[in-house]
Amino acid sequence: MMCALLLAVGAEESLNAAGWVIMLISVTFVLSLTFFCFWRVLRDSGANRASDDDPVGRNS
Amino acid sequence: MQKGATTSMSTTPSPGADAGPPYDIERGRENWGSRLGVVLAVAGSAVGLGNFLRFPGTAVNNGGGAFMIPYMLSFLLLGIPIAWCEWTMGRLGGRFHQNSAPGIMYAIWRRGSAKGVGALALLIPVGIYMYYILLEAWCLDYCIEFAMGGFRQLFAAATADAGTATAVQQAVIAAAKEHQETTFGMGANGALLSSDRTIWLVLACFFVNFVVIYQGITRGIEVFCKYAMPLLIGCALIILVRVLTLPKIGTGLGFMWNPDWQALRNPSVWLAAAGQIFFTLSLGFGVILCYASYLRRNDDVVLTSLSASSTNEFCEVILGGLIVVPTAFIFLGAENATASTFSLGFVTMPAIMHYMPLGNFVGALWFGLLFLAAVTSSLSMLQPAIAFLEDGFGLGRRSSVALLAVVTALGAGLTAYFSRGALALDYVDFWCNLSMILVATVTVLVFGWVIGIRKGMEEMNRGADFPVPRFMAFVIKYITPSFLIIILGAWFWTNSGDYLRGMMPEWRADKAERALYVGPATEHFLAQELSEEAAAVEVEKLLGTTWSHVDATKLPDWLPPADPNEVAQLRTDARVDANVARFVFIGLLLFFLVLLVLADLACRNRIGRLIAGAEADDGSLQEFTP
Question: B473 — contact with chain A (CB < 8 Å)?
C-alpha cells in the first residue's frame, strides 16, 4: 500500500536545484550558528564566567 | 562563582527599610545554576508546537523555499535584536531585585504606562497557559494512544470496507478527523469535560507542571529542561532519519523547499515570515524578561540569547522543516500537507503513521516529543506570575504556586468547557498574540529611547562573550521598532476584522447560514466547467462576502432554500459562539484590569521599596533611573 501511494505521487516535481540550494543554505546556516553557540557555551561553561566581584565585566 | 546554588543578595538593612516592611528578600534570590541550564530553559520555552507544526505549514503556504528569505531577514532584523533587548532588560531588572514584568518595566521606566505594559506581559503567559495545558494533554493522549496501539485498531476498523487506495486514504483521514474532534471535544460545549480520559490527562499535566514549578528555577525548571530538551531533540532526530530514508522523499522535500519566487512580491508572505519569527522566539511574551532576571549582573546575555534562539531555529528549520510537510505530501498529497496547524498536527500526522513502517513507534515518539515541547513551554508560562506574587506581595513559593494553580485551573476549566470548534482557545490565542506584538514594541522602544541606546548597548555588552556589532544599535533604535509597528498594524488589519465580527451574534449567524449554501453553489459553478477561482468569484457574487446575510427567498431555482429547522439551529449555535467570543474578550479584559490594579499596588508598595533598596545598595543603578 505504501509503495502504491508513493508511486501515485511519483509524477510530482522532485527537489530542484533552487530548492536544494535554499534548503542547504538554511540548514547549514542554522547548524553553524547552533554549533558555534553551543561550542562557546560549553567551552566557557563555569570556568570563564564573569564574577560578581568584577563590577566591570570582561568586555566593559 | 558557585554553581548550582542560590545566592543571597544583600541582607543589610537600607534606608528604604524604614518606610515599611523590610525591602530585602529574606528568602534569598534564586539564580540559574549553569549557563547551559538557562539556554535550555529559554530554548525550551520557545520550542513548542509552533516549531514542528506552524512553521512548515506557514512556509509551504507562503512560497516554500522562497519563504526562507523573508524568514531569515526577520530573524536577523527582528528576532535577534528583540531577544537581546529583552535579555538585557531582564538582567537589569534582576539588579533592581525584580523578576516579573511589572517590576522590571517599572524599575526601568517609572511611569504609569510601565505598570500597564508589565500587567499585559503578565497576562500573556497566564492567558496562553489556560489553553496550552489542553494542547499538552492532547499530545500526551495521542502519544499513549499510539503506544497502546489504539490508532492501529481505529484505522483498521475504518478501512475494513475500503477497496481502493484512495478510499483507504479518505477513510484514514476521516477516522483521524473524527478522533480529533472527539478528543478535543469540538462537537459541543462541555464535551471535553465529560470525556473519559482527556480530562484526567489535563489534570495530570496540570499536576506535573505545578510540581516542577514548585521546585523553583534551579531545581525545577532548569533540571527538567536539561533532561527534556536533549530527549526531545533526540526523538526528533530519530524521526528525521526515518523520514529522510523513506523512498521518494525527494518529492516531499521538493514540495516543501522548491521556491516560488512570485510569492516574494506578496506583502502577506513577508508579514507571515515576520510573524512566524516573532511568535516562535516567544518575543513579547514576558518569559525572557523573567528568566533573564535570574542571571547575575555580569552573566553574559549576548551569547546566551543567541544560543537559545539558534536552538529554537534548529528545531524549527531542520526538524520542523524536514519532517512534517515532506512526509505528509508523499503519503497523503498536497491537500493534507497544506492543512492548518491543528489539522496538520492532529489529523494529518496520525494518518501518516498508518502508512509509515513502524508507525506506532514513530507516532508515539512524535507525540511524545510534542508533549515534551509543550511541557517545557508551559512551565515557562507559570514562572512570571509566580515571580510577580513573590516580588510584589511577598508571598512564599507555596502560597504563590497555590494561588496561581487556582487561577489557571479556573481559566483552563472555562477554556475546556467552551470547546465547541475550539473557539475559546482560538480567541484567547488571538488576543494574546496581539498583546505580544504590543509588548515587544514597547520593550524595544523603552530599550532604545528610555534607557537610551548608548547605555542600553553598554549594559548589553556587560560580561558578554563577544560584543554586539555596532550597527545593531541603529537596528534596535530605528529599524526593529519600525518593523514591529508595521507588523502590529498589518497583523491587526488582516486578522482583527473576522475576530471582531465573530463577536457579533447576528454577523456570526449570517455567516453560518451562508456556509450552508456555499457547497452546493460551488458544485453548481464547477459543473459549468469554471475553475475553482472563477467558481469562488461567482459564489461571492451570488451569496455576498463571508459575513453577508443570505436572503433565501431570492435564491435561484437551482439552489433550493435550506431546511428552516436546520437554519434555526445553526443560527442559535452561532449566536452562542459569538457570546463565547465576547465572554473570552471581557474575561481577558477584566483579568488585565485586575492585574493592572495589582501591579499598581505592588509598584507603590513592595516593588517600590525593593527598587529603592537595590538602588541604595548599588549606586551604579542610578544611571538607569529616569
Answer: no
- Max CA-CA distance within chain B? 86
- B339-346, long-range: CB within 8 Å, 24+ apart, which pairs? B339/B57, B340/B57, B341/B49, B341/B50, B341/B53, B341/B54, B341/B57, B342/B180, B342/B422, B343/B177, B343/B180, B344/B53, B344/B56, B344/B57, B345/B49, B345/B52, B345/B53, B345/B370, B346/B138, B346/B142, B346/B176, B346/B180, B346/B183, B346/B184
> Residues near B607 by Cβ (< 8 Å), separated by ≥ 6?
B98, B102, B103, B106, B107, B391, B392
How many Cβ pairs closer than 8 A exist between chain A and B?
155
What pLDDT, on a 0 to 100 scale, did the predictor assign at position B606? Answer: 95
Instruction: Using CA atoms of B591, B596, B602, B608 in order, give the dihedral in degrees to the nearest 10.
Output: 150
Span B498-546, pLDDT tens digits: 999 999 999 999 999 999 999 999 999 999 888 888 989 999 989 888 8
Structure-block grid coordinates of residue B147: 503506544
Which of A49-58, B14-23, B42-51, B300-309 is predicted with the least confidence, judged by mean pLDDT? B14-23
Sign of CA dihedral B389, B395, B396, B400: negative
User: 3-state class of B29 per DSSP?
Assistant: strand
Which residues face B29 on adjacent strands? B7
- Position of cell 507588523? B487
Distance from the Cα of residue B588 to its chain's centroid: 17
Q: Which of residues 393-432 of B touch A (CB under 8 A)?
A: none
B492 lies within 8 A of chain A by CB:
no
Interface test with B, best of A22, A28, A42, A43 (most B CBs within 10 A): A22
